[in-house]
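For this section, I looked closely at the sequence of one protein beside the tokens encoding its backbone, which the following lines show:
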Amino acid sequence: MTTAAEGETVFVEAPARLHFGVLDLRGALGRRFGGIGAAAPSPTLLVSATAAPTIEITGEDADRAADFAARFLAHHRLKGGARLTVHRTLPPHAGLGSGTQLALAVARALAEIHGVSIDAPGLARAVGRAQRSAIGTFTFAGGGLVLEGGRYPDRGSVAPLLARLPFPPAWRCVVAVPHASPGMSGSAEAEAFAQLPPAPEREVERVAHLVLMALLPAIADGDLARFGPALTEIQSITGRWFAPVQGGTFTPGPTAALVRRMVEWGASGVGQSSWGPTVYGIVEGEDAGRQLADRVRVELGPTGRVYEGSFRTEGARVWRSSTFPAQP
């Protein structure tokens, strides 16, 4: 990696991430969590950076971006800073990984400015992310379905990436963000995890069996008729694990209602991303994707947000330019 030239601006565009479910809340084999997920078709966040003697940050969520920048510079003992602009953010606390994606985008921009060669897990360690799930870290790094293997509680390493499989181009994902109470985060999330009872061992085994012998083979075969039900069952099982703190298998209200409606409208795979309120549905074909998205828009009304498209084949995009908004 080369340091950005004087006057050159580094742009980083990062996708929202969808969390499809955790693998193991028991930790009986040492590792906890683990999970499956994917980069959403949209929305995305965008940051830019140019070299500067100190850190200067403007735009949306500037205070949080400043904290991530300070962490990265301290971690690598870097002198100097950057002039950072957060041009757009992801919907906060919606189950789309807004904090992790902002942290990684800021870290990547600074790495480019200062000529630091580092991968996505290294970025996450530098800014203190991936303490439980590493799905957002690996969707930042690339597209496709991501499977990560959980982490040991007493180690600082990021959970390992076990598999990354591309989605068939014909599959479409509809992402719906209802106007509802934000999902849990920060100290509230930590407290919620502490209150959860151990997941039943047979259910943990069932999830692992579904992932290995149904979900992964189905995506490799391009078989949505088998992929969808496997994913929906995984979501139902893992949702029950979180029911004691979120009030049901899916967050009550618009989120739970929309999960049911997407099934009625023909989505092959449905679920809630992380703590919600975001819901996703997977169908095959452009027409089916548009039809499902249109129905969801009517259901949510003007206060909801709906995104539709093919699953991403890449993670975050990074480019350099002397003008804005130049694209690669």
About this structure: The mean pLDDT is 93. The radius of gyration is 19 Å. The CA atoms of residues 246 and 252 lie 8 Å apart. The longest strand covers residues 33-52.
